[in-house]
Design a protein that fits this description.
The complex is a heterotrimer of chains A (279), B (355) and C (266).
Chain A lengths: L1 H10 L4 H22 L10 H4 L4 H34 L6 H8 L6 H12 L4 H8 L11 H25 L3 H9 L4 H30 L2 H5 L8 H9 L5 H34 L1
Helix pairs in contact in A: 2-13, 4-8, 4-10, 8-10, 9-10, 10-13, 12-13
Chain B lengths: L1 H26 L6 E8 L5 H11 L1 E8 L2 H10 L6 E5 H10 L2 E2 L14 H7 L10 E13 L11 H4 L7 E4 L2 H11 L9 H14 L3 E5 L3 H6 L5 E5 H10 L3 E4 L7 E9 L5 H12 L1 H11 L6 H5 L3 H4 L8 H5 L9 H16 L1
Parallel strand pairs in B: 1-2, 1-3, 6-7, 6-8
Antiparallel strand pairs in B: 3-10, 4-10, 5-8, 5-9, 5-10
Helix pairs in contact in B: 7-8, 8-16
Chain C lengths: L1 H30 L15 H8 L1 H33 L3 H16 L2 H12 L7 H26 L2 H9 L4 H30 L2 H6 L7 H8 L6 H37 L1
The chains are: A mainly alpha (279), B alpha/beta (355), C mainly alpha (266).
Chain lengths: 279, 355, 266
């Protein structure tokens, strides 16, 4: 056991290059942002920029961002999980090709894809053309929160599918068969065997979907018609059109702190998840 | 274990070095006379002209693009890249002139400077007194592009945007300055107002209008009207010309209350070490053939009178290509750069957008 | 019952596929549109494909984009995978700190990361291709770590330990035991990183030097005046090319697999 521990403590040296990278390219630039966030244009210390997140406008954007991010994460999970199960069921799992099929659309430029969605969803768009051909009334999706939601779910879905896919795909059929032999029904197998094993993937996916969907601003500008603001739009506007880097940095720091606090909770979950997976 | 780690680092190091060296190798084609670094709006110059310039003068051009004046300013003011030449709009030019970011144009080295009409030097003197720093490049007005099959009668006033008749069919600019400008003009105020009450009144008007607005767009405003998704949009005159090309039912008007006449200019930064190269580039842009090629690439109004003279009759009479003196007369150049006014406007704009 | 499940699975995969590929179909159609405007149909044409190949700027940007995506995701894997293994071996507290730091590039809005890196780079390297590469690696590593970590957590490390106990060197044990186990995570991490790098424009925009262009920054520059149809043609070509490569690889690996099965049966 002693030797084991020693090995494991040696193993964490593997993270050295990464640690150096984080310090030089993540932590130090972050200090630049903190310096802007905690000073005003005259260079004096202030908490005003960070506190500005509580102003009515920013709170509104924050709340809307949370709704979008939460909805996006839930929809992504609801769409991604059955997708992975279906792929596993059809035995598409072991072949790398299914991975490619999921990721390939994302190799086309992001802006082009979002503009294509705009053409699909607009009033005289492709979707309404098809709907009216089928004899239904056209829908007004363009420039609504729904359009933004469709955009973010579309854009981040692969980031949910992939980690769940990697987590579930290699659950051996023997394990499932064994459980079934022991008399477990499909539901029991799913909830007792498959689901617990997929939790780490689910959590990774959530991190990769939830946060970026809050700070995107192109999707809300193009598909939301610029009528709805995510917190990302506000930060972008402060940096660029307002030329107020202090305010932009302050909001960004506030957002970061908020997400970190809520994630602290998630990481704890992850830790217990890990324990339960290994033992 | 140690060996393993070492090889990882080594591979990483090799890849990084290769990555840093590859592009450097790509640059050293022929021994160039020199180089200049230029920042311009996106798609605002025929890329072939850059090659032509290098071929003629031996001066290499490092070309950069920005979407908005503010984006350009962010890149410029960070000092991360040393730009020699900057192209931007009226108010941004004024801001940078006031900051002392430019050096005077060596006018004597510019043979083709007189191709630019006097009228435009007069325009630019609104923000560049004495015409020391700016060479006009393209210009135009801001107005309404509308679909004649959907809008009853000829439009001549900003009123159509605010009277509620075309609710849900209106597209506004997703740009603080342009949208406020529309409201200020409709209310009969100057686009350069520094009166907070007037700005707030404009915001109230825009707030009341917001439910009727289909979208605030920058890039796709023209396309939405062309596609018939909206009945009208606030656009730059050049965009209106292209809109008309794609859909003959579209018309463009500069409302009678007046509007904004915008003018984009070139200037040489104070960091520029070889103003003679920069001047050569500007002179090149003012040349008749180059001006023509760029005009045919961009289709915005050109201040180059030689180019206008050689245009087709039809183009010359097109209000969106060559705005008439009558419509320009009612328009103002935007030169408001006061920090407090900008901050207030920014705050009001945020309020409007979040409503 | 099994058959019914097969059908349902097939339909569902088809449905998700349709969502993922719908905009791609639109882009493909646009690449044959003779009109420069994306909203009017001007008839069928191959012109944009011909023009694409004579457009030096686009081809250069494509080249830069691919090199950048490949190099940044390769380095991210080389730094990220050992990083994930190392972090996994840490105690609870350090693990928490590292995972938080890993998430930070994802927490910041792109524009904040972009401007922070730009201001930071100015101190020690000139902006150019190298600075963009460093920036891309920085935002790519977290994706690699987040996709490898679940695999590592599921991994039964006792096999590795047993191999070591039986006298195998760490390098041997790593390549024989750990690497194959982590492979699916590494592959998906690599491709996520590759994709992120191809897609990013905000961070690239602020960290690139003058004259360095990727497809994203180029397209971003075009959105005001309208996207050049050559870009649709390029997207179509990339799409078709990658699909063909995929089919080939898949057929080959199928054959290879069957071959192995046959051998085993013998």
């Amino acid at each position: 056991m002693n030797e084991l521990e020693e090995r494991s403590s040696k193993r964490h040296w593997l993270a050295t290059p990464y640690a150096i990278w984080i310090i030089v390219f993540t932590v130090l630039p972050l200090i630049v942002i903190f310096r802007y966030a905690l000073t005003d244009s005259a260079g004096h210390f202030t908490l005003e920029n960070t506190a500005a997140v509580t102003s009515p406008i920013n709170m509104k954007a924050m709340w809307f961002s949370l709704k979008i991010a939460f909805g996006c994460t839930v929809f992504c999970i609801l769409l991604a999980y059955p997708m992975v199960l279906a792929m596993k069921h059809l035995g598409l799992g072991r072949r790398g090709i299914s991975l490619f099929i999921i990721i390939l659309p994302m190799w086309m430029n992001f802006i082009l894809r979002i503009l294509a969605w705009q053409m699909i969803l607009s009033n005289n768009g492709i979707l309404n053309l098809m709907i009216t051909k089928l004899g239904f009334k056209p829908v007004a999706v363009a420039n609504t929160p729904t359009a933004i939601m469709i955009g973010v779910v579309y854009d981040y879905l692969p980031y949910m599918i992939l980690p769940i896919y990697t987590a579930i795909m290699d659950i051996s059929d023997d394990l499932i068969e064994a459980a079934k032999d022991l008399g477990a029904g499909s539901f029991t197998v799913f909830f007792k065997v498959v689901f617990p094993l997929s939790i780490p993937g689910l959590l990774s996916g959530t991190v990769m979907v939830f946060v970026p969907s809050m700070t995107s601003f192109v999707i809300s500008d193009i598909l939301g018609g610029g009528k709805l603001q995510l917190i990302g739009n506000i930060i972008e506007q402060d940096f660029i059109s307002g030329n107020n880097w202090h305010m932009g940095s302050g909001l960004s720091v506030a957002l970061m702190i908020f997400v970190l606090i809520s994630m602290e909770f998630t990481i704890r979950e992850e830790k217990t998840g890990r324990e339960s997976v290994i033992w | 274990m140690k060996k393993n780690r070492f090889s990882f680092k080594k591979i990483a190091a090799i890849i990084m070095m290769a990555a840093l060296v590859i592009p450097a190798g790509g640059c050293g084609k022929a021994a160039a006379v020199g180089e200049i670094t230029v920042i311009n709006y996106g798609e605002y110059l025929d890329p072939d002209m850059l090659d032509l310039f290098t071929k003629e003068t031996g001066i290499k051009v490092n070309y950069e693009e920005a979407i908005t004046p503010e984006e350009m300013y962010t890149k410029y003011s960070s000092g991360a890249i040393k730009y020699d030449l900057v192209c931007s709009s009226d108010y941004m030019m004024k801001k940078m002139i006031l900051e002392g970011d430019f050096q005077e144009i060596p006018w004597d080295a510019m043979e083709n400077k007189d191709n630019i009409g006097d009228k435009f030097y007069e325009f630019s003197s609104a923000f560049d007194p004495g015409n020391k720093y700016c060479v006009p490049y393209f210009w135009g007005t801001l107005g309404i592009l509308y679909d004649t099959t959907k809008v009853k009668g000829p439009v001549d006033s900003w009123d159509v945007l605010f009277n509620g008749e075309y609710a849900g069919d209106i597209i506004m600019q997703n740009s603080m300055k342009d949208t406020f400008m529309v409201a200020l003009k409709y209310l009969g105020y100057s686009v350069n107002t520094d009166n907070p009450d007037e700005l707030k009144e404009a915001q109230q008007l825009l707030l009341a209008q917001k439910p009727d607005v289909q979208a605030y767009l920058v890039d796709e405003a023209r396309d939405e009207v062309v596609a018939g998704n909206a009945a009208m949009a606030v656009v730059y005159s050049g965009e209106a010309y292209l809109g008309h090309e794609y859909n003959n039912d579209l018309a463009y008007v500069v409302p009678k209350e007046g509007s904004n006449v915008w003018i984009d200019c070139w200037a040489i930064t104070k960091e520029c070490e070889h103003p003679e190269y920069a001047a050569k580039f500007l002179d090149f842009l003012c040349r008749e053939d180059v001006g023509m090629t760029n005009f045919e690439y961009i289709y915005y109004s050109t201040p180059n009178e030689k180019v206008v003279e050689n245009m087709d009759e039809e183009l010359r009479n097109d209000e969106s290509i060559v705005p008439s003196d009558a419509s320009v007369e009612k328009c103002e150049v935007c030169v408001q750069v006061d920090d407090d006014v900008t901050a207030l406007m920014n705050e009001l704009w945020k309020e409007l957008k979040s409503e | 019952m099994k058959r019914f499940k097969d059908i349902i699975s097939g339909i569902y995969i088809g449905f998700i596929g349709l969502i993922l590929y719908a905009p791609i179909l639109v882009l493909i159609v646009l690449s044959f549109n003779a009109s420069r405007s994306r909203v009017t149909w001007g008839g069928f044409t191959f012109d944009w494909y011909i023009r694409l190949f004579s457009n030096q700027q686009i081809l250069e940007a494509l080249f830069t984009t691919l090199i950048l995506a490949f190099a940044s995701s390769a380095v991210s894997v080389l730094v990220g995978v050992p990083g994930a293994l190392g972090i996994h071996a840490m105690n609870k507290k350090k693990y928490g700190i590292f995972m938080t730091l890993t998430n930070i590039p994802m927490l910041n809005a792109d524009i904040v990361t972009g401007i922070a890196l730009m201001l930071w780079f100015v101190h020690f390297i000139p902006l150019g291709f190298g600075s963009v590469l460093l920036a891309h690696i920085t935002f790519n590593i977290p994706y690699v770590i987040l996709s490898v970590m679940p695999r590592i957590q599921q991994m039964n490390l006792s096999v590795y330990e047993a191999t070591r106990d039986l006298g195998a060197g760490p390098v041997y044990a790593f390549f024989k035991v750990l690497l194959p186990e982590m492979m699916p995570g590494i592959i998906s991490g690599f491709f996520m990183a590759f994709t992120m790098s191809m897609d990013d424009f905000v961070i690239t925009y602020f960290t690139k030097g003058a004259g360095v262009n990727t497809l994203s920054t180029m397209i971003y520059g075009e959105i005001r005046k309208g996207i050049k149809p050559e870009m649709y043609a390029l997207s179509t070509i990339i799409f078709v090319a990658v699909s063909i490569i995929l089919l080939c690889v898949n057929t080959l690996s199928e054959k290879h697999k069957n071959h192995i099965v046959e051998e085993k049966n013998l």
